[in-house]
Design brief:
Length: 187
């Protein structure tokens, strides 16, 4: 279990130079945009435009802040993505562009190298004490709103917990928060 404080997340330019992203976690450690196995990041999107293309990568996008955007993914119907929407999986090598609905947004972006890793993203609302179950592999938990303790480790807004599990495990969770839970598994 490793705590990743919001203040320590790495800021870097987008691959296409159109903005800035905040890298939360990447594997292997120190990997760049061309050679990661998996990556979790947040980005602020202030203008309409194209997404960076990542050959051989699958991605899931979730809206954290703002009104959302409409995604135009080649080969698919336009998708309206808001804070209320389920996380949206799609191929990161499909040409994609976005039109903002009403101003700047912040998104959560999870990417895995196709054929080597898979991932899933879901929301969990915490109000009191409960348990959250994770599969084997690697899990990343982002505290999106509120404050939470996971197995006694306190997370504030923007903090993440990186969990490496050898098998299915349950973690004790307490507080009032909205979490994004990410499961990453080797194929």
């Amino acid at each position: 279990m490793k705590l990743l404080r919001a203040s320590d997340h790495k800021r870097m330019p987008w691959k296409n130079g159109g903005g800035e992203t905040v890298e939360i976690a990447v594997s292997p450690d120190g990997a760049g945009l061309a050679d990661f196995d998996w990556r979790v990041s947040m980005a602020t999107v202030a203008t309409d435009g194209p997404f960076s293309v990542f050959p051989g990568i699958d991605r899931t996008l979730s809206i954290l802040e703002g009104e959302g955007m409409t995604l135009f993914i080649e080969g698919r119907e336009p998708e309206r993505l808001t804070q209320a929407s389920d996380p949206l999986p799609f191929a990161a090598d499909a040409p994609t562009s976005a039109t903002l609905i009403d101003g700047t947004i912040t998104d959560l972006n999870v990417m895995t190298r196709r054929g080597r890793y898979t991932h899933s993203v879901w929301r969990v609302s915490v109000d009191g004490n409960s348990e959250v179950a994770f599969k084997g592999g690697t899990s990343v938990v982002l505290c999106h709103r509120g404050n939470v303790e996971i197995d006694g480790t306190a997370l504030a807004v923007g903090d993440c917990l990186l969990l490496s599990n050898d098998g299915a495990t349950r973690h004790l969770v307490s507080g009032q928060a909205q979490l994004f839970c990410i499961a990453i598994e080797a194929i």
